[in-house]
Amino acid sequence: MTDLSVDARLLASDRGLVPHINRAAVTFASAVLAAGALALANAYGWRQGALFLLGGALGLVLYHALFGFTSAWRVLIANGRGAGLRAQMAMLAVAVLLFFPALAHGSLLGQAVHGEYGAVGVSVLVGAFLFGLPRPLRSGVQRS
Q1: Using the 8-state DSSP alphabet, how is residue 107 labeled?
Q2: How far apart are CA 69 and CA 127, in angstroms?
């Protein structure tokens, strides 16, 4: 496993390397995702429903890829491994190279684009606190 965020041993189940799948959680999440997509499609059009499904699929991929900003920093501080942080910096550099020309031009593919600026509110502080909390270890697994 080539993950950059957590130790692969934490992900292994007791029965080998096959993870346990919580079928009830998968069924519930799929139903909520489908219901949300249908509600958005009925209210705003099929594109919004499709974008909702795309966002859910991308979230699932990032979750299973163990992608996360805080975990890369945690691994750098705790273990001295900076591969995840270097990957984040490379992604930021690519994003800057792609988006700055569009922002400077003012349009992209015929659509007006501009930077969004918002005030830091309670939601940002709560999110920073929640995502900054360390992930608890699974029972029976010890850190080395």
Answers
A1: E
A2: 13
Q: How far apart are CA 68 and CA 62, in angstroms?
A: 8
Phi, psi of 108 (to 5 degrees): -145, 120
Distance, in Å, from the CA atom of 20 to the CA atom of 47, rounded to the nearest integer, reads 34
Q: Rg (Cα) of the chain, in Å, rounded?
A: 19
75 neighbors 66 (Cβ within 8 angstroms):
no
The closest alpha carbon to 32, from 61, 62, 48, 52, belongs to 52
Answer for the pair 70, 132: CB distance below 8 angstroms, yes or no: yes
* Closest CA relative to residue 50, chosen from 64, 31, 34: 34
The answer to whether the CB of 105 falls within 8 A of the CB of 26 is no
For 136, other C-beta atoms within 10 Å of its C-beta total: 6
Give pTM, 2 decimals.
Answer: 0.49
Checking DSSP bridges between strand 111-112 and strand 107-108, what pairing results, if any? antiparallel
pLDDT in tens, 87-144: 888 988 998 898 888 888 888 888 888 877 777 788 888 887 877 766 555 544 445 4
